[in-house]
Specification:
Length: 201
Amino acid sequence: MSDFSLTLTGTIAITFLLAGIVKGVTGMGLPTLAMGLLGTIMPPVAAASLLIVPSFATNVWQLFAGPSFASILRRLWLMMMGILIGTVAGSWLLASDNVKWTTAGLGAALIAYGAYTLLARQLTVPVPAEGWSSPAVGFITGIVTGGTGVFVVPAVPYIQALGLGKDDLIQALGLSFTVSTIALEPFAFRLTCSRRFRCSF
C-alpha cells in the first residue's frame, strides 16, 4: 500500500472516530462533522458515499432504541415524505460535474447550521402548523441532503422546536437521519462507482 493510500485511510479512520464520538455524546453530528472534514480532501459525493453504512447503522440503532417509534412516525411522516422527494430533487447538484458548487453548498450548509446553533433563539412550532410546516421543512432538508450530503439543515432545528421530550427528540432525529440516509444512498453509490475521484491533502 502506498504512502498516499495509508495517509488517506488513516485520515478517514480518524475522521469517523471523531464523528462517532460526537454522535455518541449528542445523538447527531456524524454526517455533519465527517462531511466537513472529508470534504476538504475529496469531492462531497465521494465523502457522502463513505457515510452511507456508518450513518445508516448508527441512525437505525438510534431510531429503534427509544420507546415511541410509532407515535413519532405518525407525527413526522409528512416530513419524511418531504425529505425523500427533496433528496431526489436535490441530487442533481451532487450529480453535476462542478465540484466547486457542491463544495460551496456543503460549506454554506455547515455555516448556516453553525450560525443557528450559536446565535438563534429556541423556536417553537405550534401543533396546528405541523400539517404544512413538516412537509415544507422535509422538502428543504431533502434538497440540502441531495446537494451536499448533510442531513441537519433545517431538520434538526425544526425537530428541536416541536417540544419533544429528550428520548423522543433523540428518536425523532434518528428517524430523520435514517430516512435521509436511505434517500441519499442510491445516488451517492451510483455516482461514486461511475466516476474516478481525486483526493488531495
